[in-house]
Amino acid sequence: MAFAGAMDLLTMSIPNRISLALVAAFFVIAIVIGMPANTIMTHVAAGLLMLAVGIALFAVGGFGGGDAKLLAAGALWIGLDGLLTYVICVTVFGGILALGIVAYRQIPVDMYPIPDWARRLHAQGTGIPYGIAIAASAMAMVNKPPVEKTVEVTVDSSDVLVARTDIGLGQITNESQFRWQSWPKETIGAGYITRNGRPEAIKQLATSIARAPIMAGEPITEQKLVRAGQGGILAAILPAGMRAISTRIKEETAVGNLILPNDRVDVILIRRMRTRSGEDYASDLLFSNVRVLAIGQQIETKEGRKTADGHATTATLELTARQAEMLALANSMGEISLSLRSISDLDHEAGPMAGMDPGTRESTAIRVLRYGNPSRTYGVN
């Protein structure tokens, strides 16, 4: 566009190749950026409309042929949305340009050494280079930042109870931690609490216990909270059918206090056994894939903490009723060690799996007779 305006100023003509290059460049860029076909058609319509206007002005002597084609090429880039502004800009810039050139032609310049193009522009009857106004208007429109439009859409909604702030696992709630939020009706889940259904829900759920962490803005459901009087914090987070039981731990039997709540561990029993040659030690895998409910009094990993309480002496595990009985027996038989499982091996759906029953006299160890003397070896799975 700038080149076309310069050519019109210097030569009082605009070569056809410039307008054709602008048209071709528009279609290439439109395809590259993936402009929708209907949008391309609106731009083409704008270009054709301005071509018709330019031809009409050319017919009455108001425009040159090059001006008409450049006007249409600029409209092709701008489209129908900005076409009216484009026409206004061309009109205003063209009027200012015409007034300036008319005033310039009233100045005697014959005595001054001016360039040929300035002398040509000064000559009466040579016309006005409206290509300058067209080029300036098109560049101003194409380079302007896009206008953001805010469209308000009214949807059918209802008030849903959500958390005002983050609520931690086992935290006792209060009324200030809940609020009503407008929610599209088509996305309201079956378990969501609505103001229409339970207008007093905020008061009713105050002093409840969070069964799981709840993020700010997250909808509240009955399954995420335990009402006051329905059990303590640990009972609230314990799944149906499972039991919580604690076992003694120390740094060397709990991976250096690096086990945290919600980690998965294997439970190993180390016990002494009497043999004909005296006493011996045996290790038995009691359970695998066991969820750790708490380390000491800590039931949730605090933000920024990478280790459990170093003074904790117990680990509370999630087991079935029968497995809890087996662990209680194993605690009286020997020392319990916890083996931390890799996060890539976690299977939250499977739950704890039983290994060796400590109530039996057999062990997973293999007895070997070497030169008539019994000894032990252990298999590794």
Automatic annotation (TrEMBL):
Pfam families linked to this entry: Peptidase_A24, RcpC, SAF
Domain spans labelled SAF: 158-226
SMART domains xref list: SAF (SM00858)
CDD domains xrefs: SAF_CpaB_FlgA_like
Transmembrane regions: 18-37, 44-63, 83-104
Cytoplasm as UniProt keyword: no
Keyword flag Membrane: yes
Name the UniProt record assigns to this protein: Flp pilus assembly protein CpaB
Organism: Durusdinium trenchii
Taxonomic path: Eukaryota, Sar, Alveolata, Dinophyceae, Suessiales
